[in-house]
Amino acid sequence: MSQPELAIELEEVRAELARVSALLPERIEIDPDDVERGLAGLVLGVVELLRQVLERQAVRRMERGTLSDEEIERVGLALMRLEQKVRELAGHFGLDEEDLRIRLGAA
Amino acid sequence: MRAIVRTADADRSASTDLVVVRADEVAALATACAGAPEATESELRTHDAITSRIHSASPSLPSRFGQLFTDEDALARALKEREESLRKGLDSVGARVELSATLHWRSARASAGTAPASGTEYLEARAARERERQRAEQIVTRLVEQLPIERAFARHRSCPRDGVAAIVALLVTRDEVETMRTHIQSFGERSSEVTAAVHGPLPPYSFAS
Fold first, then answer.
1. What are the φ and ψ backbone dihedral angles of B170, each rounded to 5 degrees?
2. A71 at the B interface (CB within 8 A)?
């Protein structure tokens, strides 16, 4: 990747992070009687948020044609497995997609 | 918890089945319960009926279903901590109602029900979903531009589920309800991409927090 392309990529990631950070709530509420679940929701919410940022970036790069077929397959597979793992862990704590979104805003 | 009202309105809004917890300027109306209620249709309808009844009696901020406090003291502490922002919320939102417009795609893309078989398929499906989201955003922008409403009084979620382009929540005065309903329905009739279904007026759930 050339320097100008890298600069554009970095700027896009920065803009995406700025966009999602504007959606974060001012307060994070964790029920003191259910700290484990609250903390799990918070951590998984952050992981899911970052996964979404990376996914959007990967989609943009794919559509721009800056990823080879092999890279598309590898990145897609990694994102797919990460999503499955987040869902699996969320299910373990009795959390659904909405729970993760409520804690971190609709990204 | 069911809703927040001004302390001066608490007695008028409360009924025998509700517990009133007061701070200086705002009060919470809640229902005593032994544990977390299940989000069944019946429980959700009951919650909506209670918040609607409160909101028709006085300005209020309805609670989302399932907001639980261990006891009245915990609720009183939470109320005290957020009293200023709740008071401001009641001033700006409390007397208004919410209209909810659901925009359905006229021709929905095939559901992504089956799991992708490869990384490429996964990323291509996400690209299609992202294009759909961008289209939905443009449609919502057009809708809100055509409504006689300030942009701050509209909130939306794009592509919340298959077949739905967006759900748009609009904060309006009671006098504006029918005019707004007509505008939204007309938008849906003229659009080649979406139909529009209007629900409400409802207590201002989407604007209460």
1. -120, 135
2. no
> Which segment of B37-51, B108-122, B146-160 scores lowest on mean pLDDT?
B108-122
For residue B70, the chain A residues in CB contact (below 8 A) are: 33
Domain ranges of chain B: 3-92, 97-207
Whether A72 has its CB under 8 Å from any CB of chain B: the answer is yes
B160 touches chain A (CB under 8 A): no
CB-CB contact of A31 with A102 (8 Å)? no
Tens-digit pLDDT profile for residues B129-185: 889 999 999 999 999 999 988 766 899 999 988 899 999 999 999 999 999 999 999
Give A27's contacts (C-beta < 8 A, 6+ positions apart). Answer: none
Question: CA of B149, closest CA in chain A: separation in Å?
Answer: 23
Determine the CATH number of domain B97-207.
3.30.70
Q: Is B74 exposed, middle or buried (0-12, 13-18, 19+ CB in 10 A)?
A: middle
Choose the weakest-confidence range: B6-20, B44-58, B124-138: B6-20
Here the ipTM equals: 0.71
Q: Report the number of distinct structural domains present in chain A.
A: 1
